[in-house]
Design goal:
Helix content is 23%, strand content 25%. With 160 residues, the chain is an alpha/beta fold. Helix 1 crosses helix 2. The protein has a 6-stranded mixed beta sheet with strand order 2-3-1-4-5-6.
Length: 160
Amino acid sequence: MADLSKLARERATLATVADAIVAAAVGKELHVDVACPDSQAAFAGHLTRALHARGRACRCLAANPSPSTPTGLCSARYEAGDQTVMVITSGTHALSDAEVCRVSIHVTTENSTTTATSRSDTSGGPMEDHHGPDIVIDYHDPCGPKIRHMLPRLASPAKG
């Protein structure tokens, strides 16, 4: 039987991430890259359902992390290997990058100090404007998943 506190923490983490994405993507097409170990690939599906529950129609696709991906759905910075890259998209075809909310999420299960906190970019621009993921979720913590890093533009969306 799953530990209820871990399940509650996972749901709270997922809700926080989904709420931040929905707030940041108001009036924009959505493009979320989720890179995660194969063991946590369900996270992208859960996030897609959470976005649906918040009124954001979207779909989740498995994608090849290769920079030569013909659809251009993935960021080239993820390494192939035991990582699965899922892409969540919604909206119509945007005419410019300014009309797209791009969020890069990295889910990890190992004790890692790899975060993007050294970046100074807090703009709402495309994810290629900075290095590393916008959100880092750590499933290594024995109490359940924890958000290790979230860009300020997502953590405290602008009030409109």
